[in-house]
Amino acid sequence: MTMRTTRLTVALILLTAVYAYAAPTVFVHPAELLVEPGVEFSMSVRVDAGADTVTCFLVEFQFDPSVLELISAEEGSLFTECGYGTMYHWDVFDSGHHSCNDVTLGHDAFVLCPGELVNLEFMSVGEGVTWIEILSADLRDLRRDPILPLFTESALVAVVPGTGVPENDAGGNVSLSVVPNPSVGETELHFRLPGSARAASLSIYDVAGKTVWKSGPIEAARVRSIMWRGCDACGAPVPSGVYLVELRVDLLCGREIVDRSKIVISR
Questions:
Q1: Contact at 8 Å (CB) between 101 and 174?
Q2: Between the CA of residue 216 and those of 103, 105, 200, 247, 256, what are the distances in Å?
Q3: Which of 165, 199, 238, 263 is deepest in the core (most CB within 10 A)?
């Protein structure tokens, strides 16, 4: 290989790396959420710093209308606070299929990323799990040309009945954490038990409350971890979704402490 060819190869590699790093992402925030039925909550569609300057956008997204109802889709702070006039529009194709677009008005009018494109207000109307899925996204630069490549990231929302015990709020020296989360399969369940613990157990439930997996009896110990391989009791991989993990600790005094968290499986 000649010196010239080597330099050209290195230049192409560096250019590719910079290009890939600069590619913007339009995403739904937060990436995963657990709520109870009948609750109003906010999410947003955002763009990261890879986009730099943007003059207009169009985002189309969908979700399961039996789980969520979109109450409003308001213009995001990125455009409302840009200092230019804007023209925002929200289209409803059906109850679970929407699009939003915004345009800066005037020559050389633009917004500086990152920031919020659209503010979404939802109501959880039914138990279940749904993706807020971005079907398409279009960002335009100062010349009103498409910004490419452009990546998108959807969000996962689970609507489940209240457990009566807040996540990670069991009190005492009991704690429960999940790593990684979200996970593509294998997940490590880390937990801490108090010295007064006699025994403990771990269970995982789907959003319908069905037991998916259960550990055997766990002998008392200060800090422990167990690997859940993302499979049910029969060894079959569980589908993508939100799962509840529950830690039950029996104390020497006869009292029981319960701590709960959630695991998001995204295959």
A1: no
A2: 58, 63, 9, 12, 17
A3: 263
